[in-house]
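Q: what sequence does this backbone want?
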């Protein structure tokens, strides 16, 4: 009897359990359906976003193609214009080039003409100098200066080469001397004294030869050259300078006694000359008084 009751109680419990499981299953189904709905809505949102993005990309691609086409058109237009302008400028540029070449040729020709004119003027100056020298020679014959006691009188000068005049030879020699062409000017001064020993510039030519020897530090030769000025041309504008420079070169060459005597002679003859203070200073350097002595006679 008791077993029957338990069986009946068990049978009563089975339907209640089935109902609980059924309710739980329905709840799960509802959750699954809700999840499916959420997934569906999420997918729809993503599809919409992808469609929007695809549309934007398509528009961007279209705009890019438009810009590319515009750039190509612009480049083609610019190239055509540049080519057109270059074609138009070829003619004027060629004309300008031709004119520049013509101007260069004309300038070159002008320079040549100016050079020819300069040469002609130089030749004309030389001819005028020769004519002037010839006129002076014919109108006022030069007289040889009287030789000093014991000095060798001038002998007849040789005839100069054709085309060589006293004036042109002097100008060339002095120009080369002034520009430092010592060897050339020495040869020209030597020729001047050889062909024109009695002209007004002869004493100066002899004096500048002494200066050239001094430049070359040939002091003994310089002394002889300055002494020749004093012996051959005793009364000329270069006499004081020749005496002073002779004393200087005697001092440079180690001839202190002769140098002192020359400076004293200089001061005795030219006490107020512009070189007198320097002559006195040299005498003090030599340890001697600057009181002038009696003028020595030129050496025989």
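A:
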């Amino acid at each position: 009897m008791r077993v029957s009751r338990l069986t009946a109680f068990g049978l009563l419990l089975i339907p209640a359990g089935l109902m609980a499981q059924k309710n739980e299953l329905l709840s799960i189904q509802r959750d699954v359906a809700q999840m499916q709905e959420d997934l569906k809505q999420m997918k729809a949102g993503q599809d919409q976003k992808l469609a929007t993005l695809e549309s934007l990309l398509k528009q961007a691609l279209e705009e890019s193609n438009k810009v590319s086409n515009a750039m190509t058109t612009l480049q083609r237009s610019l190239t055509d214009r540049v080519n057109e302008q270059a074609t138009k400028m070829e003619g004027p540029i060629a004309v300008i080039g031709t004119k520049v070449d013509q101007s260069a040729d004309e300038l070159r020709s002008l320079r040549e003409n100016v050079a020819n004119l300069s040469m002609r003027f130089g030749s004309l100056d030389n001819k005028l100098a020769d004519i002037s020298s010839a006129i002076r020679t014919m109108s006022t014959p030069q007289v040889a200066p009287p030789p000093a006691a014991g000095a060798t009188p001038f002998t007849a000068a040789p005839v100069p080469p054709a085309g060589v005049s006293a004036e042109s030879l002097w100008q060339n020699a002095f120009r080369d001397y002034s520009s430092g062409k010592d060897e050339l000017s020495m040869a020209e001064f030597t020729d001047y004294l050889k062909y024109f020993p009695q002209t007004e510039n002869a004493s100066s030519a002899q004096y500048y030869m002494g200066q050239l020897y001094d430049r070359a530090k040939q002091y003994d030769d310089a002394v002889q050259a300055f002494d020749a000025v004093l012996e051959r041309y005793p009364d000329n504008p270069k006499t004081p300078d020749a005496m002073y420079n002779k004393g200087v070169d005697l001092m440079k060459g180690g001839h202190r006694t002769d140098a002192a005597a020359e400076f004293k002679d200089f001061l005795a003859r030219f006490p107020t000359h512009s070189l007198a203070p320097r002559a006195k200073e040299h005498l003090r350097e030599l340890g001697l008084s600057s009181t002038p002595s009696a003028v020595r006679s030129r050496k025989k």
